């Protein structure tokens, strides 16, 4: 893409782009539900706007806001803000905020891809690796700020389970049913690397849990040992994730670049300019932060109103909403028999949560003076263990069929049912008790 085309896009001059590339990119990249509105606005609205800044804004608005099938959920954002300002029911604020986060998560991914066109593959890969789970990370940080450690742990655990069992399971199921007469193959190298990292992350979760049972008590010395080990393990996990990024983006990039992905990306070009994409990305991140604060602050009210435990909402509902865009994309690629991309979406996101977001939250909590460890309790750690092992066994032969998807999907249903009937104690009470134990242990060691 030459500099003139970039300038035209930044100025919102759609006619300045070549007829061959411009309209073709808009139609193929964005399958919108309101296509009739787009056809009317393309030739009539933008060329008649004389103000360059307004023309640029309208052009970007068309691509960023209307360029997704989830655009119908954008009105939930101002409704959530109004519900908060006028003190509507807190469950309504929670539900509207959750709906508003769905299109924002998908648009953040779109904007990072647009920026990647101008920054090169390495920086673009780092952006995608960092912002791929921005919604989950922001929700976790707000939960950490409000010292709702259980909500934080539940939401991150749910993201891993959702990607491994629900996203991957439904993708293999739908792909298998759509390609019954075709042999479904995928490259095992990428799944093997992700499985190894997930097993390493699982080890760092299991050992703190074993500390508690090995000591046969929950005394203060066991709590402080678990906390210290968790912080050390988190540093090692972040170091391993950094090595994984070097492995993925530099030394062994060919493993993570499937042939289908390369073929699909040959004719793709940026739809908006660099600074426009960056500005929209900053703005949407601020909105995600606002809605995340609403979600974390009203989750207990929603739990009481709906008669559903906080663990079920955090582990099941939050990840389904946060992964909705990735879920849909993974299924679409599976329908096209492009399993390498589907596996990359599901396993890559689970690996990022396990090896980057979770240890980062532990380190940030350490900096903030909040005591967070890697002990996710017995039921939660057991569910994670079985999910990772079942996924690793499912992907060991390099072939796929719909029965594998059935098994993974049913595993997710069983775990969801388990947390639906599991009534956890109050989030505030559990968090307060754990903090009191660790703080007393810290006081003993200081004395």
Topology summary:
Blueprint: H1 3-11, H2 22-29, H3 35-48, H4 52-64, H5 76-85, H6 90-119, H7 121-131, H8 134-145, H9 149-178, E1 184-185, H10 188-215, H11 220-251, H12 259-264, H13 274-306, H14 310-322, H15 324-335, H16 339-368, H17 378-394, E2 399-400, H18 402-421, H19 427-446
Antiparallel strand pairs: 1-2
Helix pairs in contact: 5-6, 6-7, 6-13, 8-9, 8-13, 8-16, 9-14, 9-15, 9-16, 9-17, 9-18, 10-11, 10-16, 10-17, 11-16, 11-19, 15-16, 17-18
Describe this structure as you would to a colleague:
By secondary structure, this protein is mainly α. The protein contains 19 helices and 2 strands. The protein has helices at 3-11, 22-29, 35-48, 52-64, 76-85, 90-119, 121-131, 134-145, 149-178, 188-215, 220-251, 259-264, 274-306, 310-322, 324-335, 339-368, 378-394, 402-421, 427-446; strands at residues 184-185, 399-400. It has a two-stranded antiparallel sheet. Helix 8 packs across helix 13 and helix 9 packs parallel to helix 17 (378-394). The longest helix is centred in the middle third of the chain and has 33 residues, at 274-306. It is globular and about 75 Å long. Residues 1-7 and 11-45 have low confidence and may be disordered.
């Amino acid at each position: 893409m030459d500099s003139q085309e970039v300038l035209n896009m930044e100025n919102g001059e759609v006619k300045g782009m070549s007829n061959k590339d411009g309209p073709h990119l808009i139609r193929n990249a964005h399958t919108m539900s309101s296509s009739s509105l787009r056809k009317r606005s393309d030739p009539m609205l933008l060329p008649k706007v004389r103000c360059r800044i307004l023309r640029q804004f309208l052009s970007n608005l068309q691509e960023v806001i209307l360029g997704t099938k989830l655009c119908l959920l954008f009105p939930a954002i101002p409704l959530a803000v109004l519900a908060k300002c006028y003190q509507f029911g807190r469950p309504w604020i929670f539900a509207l905020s959750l709906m508003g986060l769905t299109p924002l998560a998908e648009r953040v991914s779109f904007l990072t891809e647009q920026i990647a066109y101008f920054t090169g593959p390495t920086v673009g890969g780092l952006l995608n690796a960092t912002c791929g789970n921005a919604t989950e990370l922001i929700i976790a940080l707000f939960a950490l700020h409000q010292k709702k450690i259980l909500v934080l742990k539940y939401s991150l655990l749910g993201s891993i389970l959702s990607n491994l069992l629900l996203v991957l399971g439904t993708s293999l199921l739908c792909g298998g049913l759509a390609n019954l007469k075709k042999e479904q193959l995928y490259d095992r190298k990428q799944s093997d690397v992700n499985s190894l990292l997930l097993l390493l992350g699982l080890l760092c979760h299991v050992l703190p849990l074993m500390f508690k049972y090995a000591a046969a008590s929950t005394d203060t010395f066991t709590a402080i040992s678990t906390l210290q080990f968790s912080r050390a393990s988190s540093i090692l996990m972040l170091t391993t994730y950094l090595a994984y990024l070097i492995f993925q983006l530099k030394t062994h990039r060919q493993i993570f670049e499937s042939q289908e992905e390369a073929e699909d990306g040959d004719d793709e070009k940026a739809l908006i300019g660099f600074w426009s994409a960056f500005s929209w990305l900053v703005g949407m991140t601020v909105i995600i932060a606002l809605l995340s604060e609403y979600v974390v602050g009203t989750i207990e009210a929603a739990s009481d109103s709906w008669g559903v435990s906080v663990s079920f909402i955090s582990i099941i509902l939050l990840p389904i909403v946060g992964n909705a865009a990735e879920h849909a994309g993974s299924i679409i690629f599976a329908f096209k028999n492009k399993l390498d991309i589907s596996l990359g979406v599901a396993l890559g996101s689970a690996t990022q949560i396990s090896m980057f977001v979770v240890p980062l939250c532990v380190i940030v909590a350490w900096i903030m003076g909040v005591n967070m460890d890697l002990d996710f309790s017995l039921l939660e750690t057991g569910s994670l263990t079985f999910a990772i092992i079942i996924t690793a066994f499912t992907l060991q032969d390099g072939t796929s069929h719909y029965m594998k998807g059935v098994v993974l999907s049913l595993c997710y249903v069983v775990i969801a049912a388990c947390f639906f009937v599991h009534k956890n104690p109050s989030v505030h009470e559990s968090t307060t008790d754990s903090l009191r134990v660790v703080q007393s242990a810290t006081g003993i060691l200081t004395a």
